[in-house]
Amino acid sequence: MTGATWAVLAVTVLIVGGAGAGLWWGAASARAQVEAEAPAVLDGFLSSATSGDAGWADYVSPQFAASAPAIPLFGDAAAAEVIELSVSAQAGPVSYGTSAVAREASPDGEDIAWATVDLTYSFVVDGAPQTATATQLVWLARPFYYGDDQPAEAVDGKTPSRVGPWRVAAIAMATPDQLDGRSIAAETTYTTSKPVTRCKLPQDALVSLAEAARLNGALGGPCINDGGAVAAAEGIDAAELASQLPALNYQSTMPEALGLVGSYDVPAPLAELRIAAGSDEYVFVYAVTGAGGQRTSASDARLIAISKAETR
Fold this sequence. Notes:
Elements: H1 3-17, H2 34-49, H3 62-66, H4 77-82, E1 86-91, E2 95-97, E3 112-125, E4 128-141, E5 144-145, E6 162-163, E7 167-173, H5 202-216, E8 231-232, H6 238-244, E9 257-259, E10 270-277, E11 280-288, E12 301-308
Parallel strand pairs: 8-12
Antiparallel strand pairs: 1-3, 2-3, 3-4, 4-7, 5-6, 9-10, 10-11, 11-12
């Protein structure tokens, strides 16, 4: 399949899903048939992506793979080791539809598919085990061909000469109406002594960290774990890193938050920010706080770990 195939379908998936948050990550291997194919692709992707296995790339579109800065759903391998991260996934049934949403799909003519996935994250903060959950919507797509090599959406009433394999094409934040009334998973055991409004997003927290480094020559500020307890990978000198952090403010081009898709009302439980400092790239790991065991719009992000970047 060509890159154009997936360029067409990736746009379709994001429009149909209403997701402004396509995330990360392609390639080949039609290893299942018809109804079994999409669930098998989804299961293979989840198994690899939640364990840090690079085999996830066998189950996704080329565009999705090319944009992945780290292993999807799991993040940077070195950062995961620092916080002793493990991830489990529970996928719901796969649903099917067409990109031409105004019409009813024929039984075998679907070109998009989706499933909700509940994820459970286990990690350690300052020696204390933590767990957090999140619900994501995983989209799949496949190209239809009608007598030539030009990829197309499914055309109602027209028989394709061939159909390409299903591949994961996007990950989005699930909404309540996509869960048939079920609640979005947003539990967390991670809490801090008091909320800090200036730490709402990981990017806010990074600006605060850069300010403290510039003013005090040390990694600190209000947006770090209670008591300044931040795990650092072996070989990281906190004082040296503080001296090398670039000056950041809200007008700066901020690094993208790598991790799950969240929303204002239901922020993702963990996020990673990758930033260059000196001759190295570092990953700053942020956990999102909960009140009463839930992440809400009142939650804030706190720095819990730093590592040198490993996965690209």
